[in-house]
Amino acid sequence: MGKIVVKIGGVASDNLTEEFFDTLADWQAAGQEIVIVHGGGYYITEMMEKLNVPVTIANGLRVTSAQALKITQMVLIGQVQPAITTVFQQNGFSAVGLHASCGQLIQGTFIDKDSLGYVGTITNIGTGMINDVLAKNHVPIIAPLGLTEEGEWLNINADTAACKIAEALDAEALYLITDVPGVKCEGEWLEHLTTDDVEQLKDQEVITGGMIPKLDSATSALTKGVKEVFITNSIAKCGTKITKAKVFA
């Protein structure tokens, strides 16, 4: 059976549609195994503001102090993940929440502790726990948190986590669900890009802002075995498909 990894936002528990779950059910009926990676930035920011903890973003990453890390853990594992898992269960899927401490799932190291705090980069994905959950016909719902070798927790970018998990699982497809229907160029939503196209559009500054880390992660996943990546606002619609090699008619 093939595997499909889907990254959804933290607010997904409020926004997942019947169409979304119908598509997942169709994939499962076709023999595909589904892995979900979720974010939580909106709710983390909301909680930090409530607790009067400063929110600082640097190069698209949330600067994560020790206090901010505790809030991130609390929100992702205590609020967002249970909400998403519950919605999956209400829609007929057996879902299991996973995070870094489950079988050394996401291992990592600090990017730059002096400037970013407890923000991490991934060094290894422990696929054993994921495959165990899949073997029991459950859908793993994974929070983007990591652990260092010394047992320190790390805040990981959710798009990066999804791409690394897709790489480790040798996934057939990776869907990065965002709030736009794909990648736009000259006013048009693009149906297909290659990894070469991505670099060209970055050089031309057509691709900017938050789309850059998504596409960088997508390119990395494609060069390491993932067959195709979709950036879209709906898994029922392809959005922009990204592949390693050009598709010839």
UniProtKB/TrEMBL annotation:
Species of origin: Enterococcus florum
Residues that coordinate or bind substrate: 40-41, 62, 155
The enzyme's E.C. designation: 2.7.2.8
Family under the similarity heading: Belongs to the acetylglutamate kinase family. ArgB subfamily.
Localization: Cytoplasm
Pathway: Amino-acid biosynthesis; L-arginine biosynthesis; N(2)-acetyl-L-ornithine from L-glutamate: step 2/4
Any one Gene Ontology molecular-function term assigned to this protein's record: acetylglutamate kinase activity
Name of the molecule in the record: Acetylglutamate kinase
Any one of the GO CC terms: cytoplasm
EC class (word): transferase
Keywords linked to the UniProt accession: Amino-acid biosynthesis, Arginine biosynthesis, ATP-binding, Cytoplasm, Kinase, Nucleotide-binding, Transferase
